[in-house]
Design brief:
Blueprint (H helix, E strand, L loop, with lengths): L3 H13 L9 H12 L4 H9 L2 H11 L13 H8 L1 H14 L13 H21 L5 H9 L4 H8 L1 H12 L8 H9 L3 H11 L4 H8 L11 H13 L14 H11 L3 H10 L1 H10 L3
The structure holds fe (ii) ion (2 copies).
One fe (ii) ion binds next to loops.
Length: about 290
């Protein structure tokens, strides 16, 4: 069996051959680097958002959506920050700026890339809510870690579009099982989406805890770096099925679920109850931020 380090090196070597990898927008890069440097302040956040017209429009759209229940329309980013708080606006801005990477339209009669986007938003919201509930010191990183956990699928779609669509079709038609996905990806592409995702996030210069969480979101391995964030993302990924945002093409494993529950010291039924309450928030975000 290959070690995580060997798998990452294989994914890195494969990706090196292709110059056309997905890239982040300038505003997403600025937001992420502000987050990694320190806690994002109101002023920094407002400046980053206002430099990007499309991002500003999207933040207004979501902040004025019925979910946030403001009786009067929110006219400026500063006002949105005061009324809804830095965390909420930061997440809307992150989701909006990252959504541009999730383009690709309908890949098969059953699968649209928007399904992957909705799943990513659900996992981001769930990861952050769990981090807050468990009083984890990871709650600042949780939303973005969830949002980017499956970005490795976009690497596969960019590098091997024909083969990736064929794989999605076979999963749709249940001729292969999600349970076997990681091995099938290795057989066909040379590495799996968790390892491709890890390498892409590293190439985007994101902090190592985000790369490690993407790498470990289907398997809790002892050398997977920060296991708390990885366990949160892994469980949020599995919980997405119970709130109607599953990614039917994604891998599953009961063993990894139990390992992650043990890392966090929590039971599955408590998490399921929490997830059900978050559904309106997830529906609101994905309704206003189409990829
Ligand atoms: Fe995945
Ligand atoms: Fe996933």
């Amino acid at each position: 069996m290959t070690s995580p380090t060997e798998r990452h090196e294989t994914a890195r070597a494969l990706m090196k051959k292709f110059p056309a990898l997905p890239s982040l927008s300038n505003s997403a890069t600025r937001l992420l680097s502000a987050m990694s440097a320190r806690r994002v302040t109101t002023t920094t956040l407002a400046q980053i958002i206002e430099r990007d017209v499309a991002l500003t429009a999207n933040v207004h759209k979501v902040a004025n959506s019925p979910f946030y229940g403001q009786s009067r329309s929110i006219a400026t980013i500063e006002r949105a920050l005061v009324l809804l708080g830095v965390d909420v606006i930061r997440n809307i801005a992150l989701a909006s700026s990252v959504s541009r990477v999730f383009r690709g339209g309908r890949l098969t009669p059953e699968f649209h890339i928007g399904t992957l986007w909705r799943h990513s938003l659900a996992v981001a919201t769930l990861t952050e809510a769990m981090a807050k509930k468990l009083a984890s010191d990871q709650h600042e990183n949780a939303f973005i870690a969830g949002l980017l956990h499956d970005v490795g699928f976009l690497v596969e779609l960019n590098l091997w579009p024909v083969e990736f669509v064929a794989l999605v079709r076979e999963l749709d038609q249940q001729s292969i099982r999600p349970h076997d996905l990681l091995q099938i990806e290795v057989d066909r592409f040379g590495a799996s989406h968790d390892d491709f995702g890890r390498v892409l996030l590293d190439q985007w210069l994101l902090p190592s805890h985000l790369c490690d969480a993407a790498a470990a979101h289907h398997r809790m391995e002892s050398d997977a770096g920060d296991r708390t964030l990885a366990a949160l993302v892994l469980l949020a990924d599995q919980l997405s099925a119970s709130i109607g945002a599953p990614l039917l093409i994604d891998a599953t494993s009961d063993a990894s679920r139990y390992a992650a529950l043990a890392v966090l010291g929590i039971d599955w039924s408590t998490l399921e109850e929490m997830a059900t309450n978050l559904r309106p928030q997830i529906d609101s975000l994905s309704g206003y931020l189409d990829a």
